Amino acid sequence: MDSNGDVNVPLKDLNHKEAIDETESSVKCGVFGFQPKWIQRLANPKVLLLNFAIVSVLQGSYLPYLVGSLTTLEKRYAYDGKLTGLILIADNFSSLLLSPIFGYLGNRLNRSRLLASGMLIVSFSCYLTTLPYFIYGATDIHSKNKTSMKLGNEMCYSNEGNEIACDESETTVWPAYITIWIASFLNGVGYTAFYTLSLPFVDDNVSKKNAPVYISIHFSFLEKLNKSCFVGILSTIRLIGPSFGFVCSSICLRLYEDPWNAPDIEIKDPRWIGAWWLGLLIIGSMLFICSLPLFAFPSQLKSNKNKKTKHEECEKENTDKSKGIIY
């Protein structure tokens, strides 16, 4: 106590208290200091893995959905197969460029929040892919606008005599194509973050004994869950994601591009353009919602933190005993 009556606290004790507070904060669920007690029960590997499983399915469905819709997009915006190939490899460019960066950031920042940010980027890429529809609208099959869609190698339109008139000229809708390419590139950014960070994050937050189980289940859909471990693998998550994407694409393309103003034509009609954009909105919205909880997960789960602390104490005790024997 000093002359003013204040209690002097050693600087060492203050630093120790701050370190404890920082450690406690790093193992609690919450965002921006909001860490209520009721949400802390969610900070466990099972909840984390369940969230990863849902996000993995949705993230893995984007590219298959896009692949299933490519022929429709080619016809709608009049670009050829060579340009389609560039769309398909756009995500490889971003993956090649950013994999080392995410690996570097994963050791220094909250991996869960990096993962959530990556999934929000994938969600945004879904929305961005649909942008050409909202800019150009649905195809008017009665219009004489030859830039609206591509049928084989010719541009066709309906004339006043209800006959199909064709012209060999065609014009690619470049703004639409560039938008879709950028969306594919951004999707690569998101899934690179997921596959670079998710497995190390799961591995660091479960015991070494259970890590192989969690990692294998990370790519598997769970049939049953009990107190001790996940039991039964129904099918792999990597197959569920693409399957969901292709099925969703098939269903949406059976609807007309403008579902509320569908013309009186059949799906087999060459003028038919399916609702390619609809599934992307669904996938993007679901992924956006399911990605938000990842922001609340701590950088390290408390249960594993306690296990690591005990392990470090045991190692230190064994080291001290070894030194005592030597000396």
Could you give the topology of this structure?
Blueprint: H1 11-26, H2 45-77, H3 81-106, H4 111-136, E1 155-158, E2 164-167, H5 174-204, H6 211-218, E3 220-225, E4 230-236, H7 237-253, H8 278-291, H9 302-326
Pfam family, one: OATP
Keywords: Disulfide bond, Membrane, Transmembrane, Transmembrane helix
GO biological process, one term: sodium-independent organic anion transport
Structure description:
This protein is mainly alpha-helical and 327 residues long. The chain has a domain at 45-138 and 170-300: Growth Hormone, Chain: A, CATH 1.20.1250.20. The chain has 9 helices and 4 strands, in the order ααααββααββααα. The chain has helices at 11-26, 45-77, 81-106, 111-136, 174-204, 211-218, 237-253, 278-291, 302-326, and strands at 155-158, 164-167, 220-225, 230-236. The chain has a two-stranded antiparallel sheet. A hairpin with a 4-residue loop joins β3 and β4. α2 runs antiparallel to α5, α2 runs antiparallel to α8 (278-291) and α3 (81-106) runs parallel beside α5 (174-204). The model is unreliable at 11-23, 144-148, 151-158, 160-169, 218-235 and 305-315 (pLDDT under 50).
